[in-house]
Amino acid sequence: MEPVDPIVQELQTKLFHAMSAGRKLALVDELIDLARALKTSSLRTLHPELSEEELRGRVAALFANVAR
Q1: This prediction's pTM
Q2: What is the pLDDT of residues 5-52, one digit of tens each?
Q3: Cα gap 2→44, rounded to integer Å
Q4: Which of 6, 12, 20, 56 gets the highest tally of CB atoms within 10 A of its CB?
Q5: Which residues of 22-42 are buried (b: 16+ CB within 10 A; e: fewer)?
Q6: C-beta separation of 63 from 38 below 8 A
């Protein structure tokens, strides 16, 4: 992973500081949803024999300690 340009990093920091707590929490929820979708897709590719229910169960187990 390449380092972030200092100007971009400064802009991101300012934007995050300006965000409300509610918006920051919403972003966390969106990132968790994205992570779950990516893991589901990965497992579906690696294990095409799994049913949707089995996939949901595996993803739920992997994310069991993620706060919601």
Answers
A1: 0.76
A2: 999 999 999 999 999 999 999 999 999 999 999 999 999 999 999 999
A3: 29
A4: 56
A5: eeeeeeeeeeeeeebeeebee
A6: no
